[in-house]
Design a protein that fits this description.
Elements (H helix, E strand, L loop, with lengths): L1 H29 L5 H35 L6 H32 L18 H9 L3 H21 L3
Helix pairs in contact: 1-2, 2-3, 3-4, 3-5
């Protein structure tokens, strides 16, 4: 049973990184894109990936928690450290990334975002304002935070230092 949980844990991590990679790619591309139709298509792709990202993340957490019980790991610091790093990394990346994508949506089409339809009566941003919004994304920062967070988690899981 434990081996199957390891398999599910690793497979769900791959699934999470696959869906998450789509959102990261969109963020890198948005910085240089200026065609509104292409921006809308990229935002649609990002929203689609974001909707599916929760499934592998949920499986990752469930399998990790189950392995914590079956392996009697909950008394060890590394498992709590891994969970803490995952939560902190996820919160930082979600807050920064989502704020950016919402600004892009609102700049391009204030009434058009599926989550915010009819919530604002502001006009769309001018070309210059939209270019500034698009350039404000920080994909390198978010990528760095994600890579460092996942490297720490991987180190904790593999070497179990405490």
């Amino acid at each position: 049973m434990y081996q199957w949980l390891i398999f599910l844990h690793v497979a769900s991590a791959f699934g999470f990184f696959l869906t998450h990679g789509a959102t990261a790619s969109v963020m890198f591309k948005l910085r240089t894109e200026r065609d509104p139709e292409r921006i809308l298509a990229l935002l649609g792709l990002r929203d689609l990936a974001d909707r599916w990202m929760g499934l592998p993340l949920g499986l990752l957490l469930i399998s990790g928690i189950a392995m914590g019980f079956l392996g009697h790991w909950w008394g060890r610091g590394w498992v709590w450290g891994s969970l803490g790093v995952l939560i902190v990394t996820g919160l930082i990346m979600s807050l920064v990334g989502r704020m950016y994508h919402m600004r892009v949506w609102e700049g391009l089409d204030p009434q058009g975002h599926p989550m915010r339809k009819g919530m604002t009566d502001r006009p769309a941003a001018t070309s210059e304002e939209l270019a500034a919004i698009l350039a404000s994304g920080r994909p390198q920062l978010l990528t760095g935070i994600g890579v460092i967070g996942m490297a720490i988690i991987l180190w904790l899981m593999m070497f179990k230092p405490f």
